[in-house]
């Protein structure tokens, strides 16, 4: 079987016998065709903080073709906590370049490329950066920049994942355009199960954020844990009002709480479930939002990687479309924001 450098779409990479042995368990789980799609995929990951670190570990071990890591920031002492690709001697070095060798050591079959500057995401360069990849994953980014990247992904037909953490809270958003996948046939019997092709129509982030909760029952609303959802959305709005900075102390709690409750009211959330965001949740968030907690990054990054691989394999329904995680309780929920029912 012939191989070539991942990223050249003219001739797909064929899995060799050696690679088939390495990925044997996955091939038995997903099937050869799905593993082939992963092997030919080029994924761009933006910002290498804790959530991205965990996600990268999993998608590289799974056997994607090429990983492009883009980060213009340098390693800080705080990065050493959740960023297990970094060592003490890396402090002050560019994050992407410092991590490259350790990422490559996870799986020598995966090509790793680094872009040590955010200039590649500026308006004039953005389309060119995205054009050569198959899937985009942006982590720990501001809402307005996510919307801008999402719009470019839509223009170019590229699926987008976004993820990150604010202290003990974490999130994943995805816009997979019109995503086709194989799903179990609900009409089939247990004795004769079969699969069918399904399609999910995703919404861009700008549309998802306009979602109204009025159609949900009291039980559905409660199950989605709106306090966590709107606390995360409030941090995004806070960043938009403060030039991208995060709340970093208890003195920011009142403003953050006012923002969260305004968003909650505007979305028409069932008042029988919640009338205001709990003050203790907001106070904790205001103090911890800039900081990373390894267990939260591990959960969110693990979920992010799993869903990216699921989307590439097209074997099951991915997240639809906003996942939130509450490290205070260890629980996570998926909210379907501005997406049509399946």
From TrEMBL:
<keyword id="KW-0833">Ubl conjugation pathway</keyword>
<dbReference type="Pfam" id="PF00899">
    <property type="entry name" value="ThiF"/>
</dbReference>
<dbReference type="InterPro" id="IPR035985">
    <property type="entry name" value="Ubiquitin-activating_enz"/>
</dbReference>
<feature type="domain" description="THIF-type NAD/FAD binding fold">
    <location>
        <begin position="23"/>
        <end position="338"/>
    </location>
</feature>
<dbReference type="InterPro" id="IPR045886">
    <property type="entry name" value="ThiF/MoeB/HesA"/>
</dbReference>
<dbReference type="InterPro" id="IPR000011">
    <property type="entry name" value="UBQ/SUMO-activ_enz_E1-like"/>
</dbReference>
<comment type="pathway">
    <text>Protein modification; protein sumoylation.</text>
</comment>
<keyword id="KW-0539">Nucleus</keyword>
<protein>
    <recommendedName>
        <fullName>Ubiquitin-like 1-activating enzyme E1A</fullName>
    </recommendedName>
</protein>
<comment type="similarity">
    <text>Belongs to the ubiquitin-activating E1 family.</text>
</comment>
<dbReference type="InterPro" id="IPR000594">
    <property type="entry name" value="ThiF_NAD_FAD-bd"/>
</dbReference>
């Amino acid at each position: 079987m012939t191989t070539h450098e991942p990223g050249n779409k003219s001739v797909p990479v064929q899995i060799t016998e050696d690679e088939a042995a390495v990925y044997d368990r996955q091939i038995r789980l997903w099937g050869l065709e799905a593993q082939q799609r992963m092997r030919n995929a080029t994924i761009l990951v933006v910002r290498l903080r804790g959530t991205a670190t965990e996600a990268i570990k999993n998608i590289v071990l799974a056997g994607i073709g090429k990983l492009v890591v883009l980060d213009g920031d340098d390693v800080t002492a705080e990065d050493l906590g959740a960023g297990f690709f970094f060592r003490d001697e890396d402090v002050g070095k560019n994050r992407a370049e410092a991590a490259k060798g350790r990422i490559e050591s996870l799986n020598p079959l995966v090509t790793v490329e680094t872009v040590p500057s955010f200039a590649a995401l500026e308006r004039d360069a953005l389309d060119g950066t995205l054009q050569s990849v198959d899937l985009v994953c942006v982590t720990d980014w501001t809402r307005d920049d996510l919307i801008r990247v999402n719009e470019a992904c839509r223009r170019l037909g590229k699926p987008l994942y976004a993820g990150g953490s604010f202290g003990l809270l974490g999130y994943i958003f995805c816009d997979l355009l019109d995503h086709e996948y194989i799903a179990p046939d609900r009409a089939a019997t247990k004795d004769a199960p079969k699969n069918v092709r399904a399609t999910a129509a995703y919404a861009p982030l700008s549309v998802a954020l306009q979602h109204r909760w009025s159609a949900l029952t009291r039980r559905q609303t409660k199950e989605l844990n709106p306090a966590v959802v709107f606390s995360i959305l409030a941090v995004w709005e806070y960043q938009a009002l403060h030039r991208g900075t995060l709340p970093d102390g208890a003195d920011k709690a009142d403003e953050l709480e006012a923002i969260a409750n305004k968003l909650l009211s505007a979305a028409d959330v069932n008042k029988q479930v919640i009338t205001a965001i709990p003050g203790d949740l907001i106070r904790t968030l205001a103090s911890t939002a800039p900081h990373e907690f390894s267990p939260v990054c591990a959960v969110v990054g693990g979920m992010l990687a799993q869903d990216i691989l699921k989307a590439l394999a097209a074997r099951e329904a991915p997240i639809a479309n906003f996942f939130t995680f509450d490290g205070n309780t260890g629980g996570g929920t998926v909210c379907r924001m501005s997406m049509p029912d399946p």
